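> example.struct
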């Protein structure tokens, strides 16, 4: 049986977008309560009855989010000098894909109505 498994994580961070015009609201420093959805796809292990232990996903994801992004200015994080949702998705993918076999998608929600999904290349 093939399934998609998703787990949500939250972190708080500030950023500004340096490439937008100076009068754009996102050119100013502002913060978000980010929601990151990590989705893994694959075949359920017949013996275990699951694709992967949710705790294993958390073991990989939380140190990255809490250790490198939470309560930080994203512009100061190496590789996120232009911290758009799109760039944040790709940054997370590059760090999580080697540790999470079957990674299907990373979705970053900046707000409850604005999000970006990246499925790797």
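> example.seq
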């Amino acid at each position: 049986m093939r399934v998609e498994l998703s787990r949500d994580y939250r972190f708080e961070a500030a950023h500004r977008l340096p490439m937008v015009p100076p009068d754009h609201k996102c050119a100013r420093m502002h913060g978000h309560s980010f929601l990151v959805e990590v989705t893994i796809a694959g075949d359920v292990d017949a013996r275990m009855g699951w694709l992967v232990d949710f705790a294993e996903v958390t073991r990989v994801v939380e140190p990255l989010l809490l250790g490198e992004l939470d309560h930080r200015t994203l512009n100061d994080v190496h590789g996120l000098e232009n911290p758009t949702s799109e760039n944040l998705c790709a940054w997370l993918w590059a760090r999580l894909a080697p540790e999470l076999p079957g990674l299907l998608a990373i979705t970053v929600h900046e707000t409850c109505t604005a999000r970006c999904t990246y499925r790797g290349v």
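> remarks
Residues 3 and 78 are 34 Å apart (CA to CA).
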